[in-house]
Amino acid sequence: MKIAVLSDGAWGTALAMNLIDNGHEVVSWGPFPDYLDEMREKRENVRFLPGVKLPEALSFEADIGRAADGAGLLLLATPTQYLRGVLDKLKPHFDPQRHLLLDVAKGIEVDSRLLISEMVRQVLGPNRYAVLSGPSHAEEVSRRVPTAVVAASANPADAELVQQLFINDNFRVYTGSDVVGVELGGALKNVMAIAAGIIDGMKLGDNPKAALMTRGISEMGRLGELLGGKAQTFSGLSGIGDLIVTCTSGHSRNRHVGEELGRGKRLPEILSSMGMVVAEGVTTARGAYTLARRTGAETPIIDEIHAILYEDRNVPDAIRNLMSRSAKPE
Ligand SMILES: NC(=O)c1ccc[n+]([C@@H]2O[C@H](COP(=O)([O-])OP(=O)(O)OC[C@H]3O[C@@H](n4cnc5c(N)ncnc54)[C@H](O)[C@@H]3O)[C@@H](O)[C@H]2O)c1
Ligand SMILES: O=P(O)(O)OC[C@H](O)CO
């Protein structure tokens, strides 16, 4: 099958490599034509996935219409806050019968507070849609490290199609139907990873990290259920699985942001040192905070991370707030 990867970031590139391993024809589109030329010449994604040799079979296309033409699958791998702009460009070329959309980004759109499936429906209208998510750092997938993820779609045949396109001995794909639960697991764990990074940056120890992850998944499930996800999904790869990897991995950009905050750096300084590399949890914290208020969900960790990022709350005060909440049953 021809597959168009709509992003030139780390994750789109790693998934493109996996699809090429499986014998598919893959074209990579990105928003900066000069950077596509650089990748074509160097056979390396120097800015987002350095040190990984790109397969000769991976082609690059600066025109989104030509990239989508003849493709059966459109991989949405653009960071959430830029995705609407990419969907607007795609719209004139989008064929709802022919194109299956596969979201692999993890976030909540800040301005609209929409999940990615909701944003896609708003821009492109009725469509075939699936989401692929789980504990999967691009640095490891591109090096063919054994990885397991879930592909969820409201249409079981589309979830199975995604499974068949991606699955191989290094990349195990389960199917599911809870699109909202899978999307929320991937988005909310990034906020928890910022909290985990803060604990690491402050060298607080192992107890608080375990407590954070355990109470974090409980909070994610509580909010997720109120937003229409299934509780069980949060015990799976896209929930607890992704929470574990993002809260513990040296590759995580979200955990890195937290670590720098825990060391006392300011958010603008941290983000500018990351260049164009995206930590979705920073913006998702805003979306999640509003959605929690709308649903009435109790989300103490999200609230404190939101306050640290956007209300100038200092970190020791945030920890004190969490530890001095009223006593309650687990
Ligand atoms: N990196 C991973 O290991 C990984 C794994 C799973 C999911 N994800 C998710 O995939 C999504 C993409 O992350 P990534 O790691 O590939 O990104 P990245 O940080 O590697 O790259 C940033 C991307 O943003 C794009 N960009 C910058 N400005 C833009 C603009 N104005 N318009 C459109 N695009 C613009 C860049 O071209 C680049 O593709 C995120 O939602 C992330 O959470 C990442
Ligand atoms: O590097 P992060 O923090 O964006 O996390 C990447 C993936 O979502 C891990 O599954």
UniProtKB/TrEMBL annotation:
A cellular component term, taken from the record's GO annotations: cytosol
Enzyme Commission numbers on file: 1.1.1.94
Reaction(s) this enzyme catalyzes, per UniProt: sn-glycerol 3-phosphate + NADP(+) = dihydroxyacetone phosphate + NADPH + H(+); sn-glycerol 3-phosphate + NAD(+) = dihydroxyacetone phosphate + NADH + H(+)
NCBIfam families on file: PRK00094.1-2, PRK00094.1-4
Known role: Catalyzes the reduction of the glycolytic intermediate dihydroxyacetone phosphate (DHAP) to sn-glycerol 3-phosphate (G3P), the key precursor for phospholipid synthesis.
Family to which this protein belongs: Belongs to the NAD-dependent glycerol-3-phosphate dehydrogenase family.
The protein's name in its UniProt record: Glycerol-3-phosphate dehydrogenase [NAD(P)+]
Lineage per the UniProt record: Bacteria, Pseudomonadati, Lentisphaerota, Lentisphaeria, Victivallales
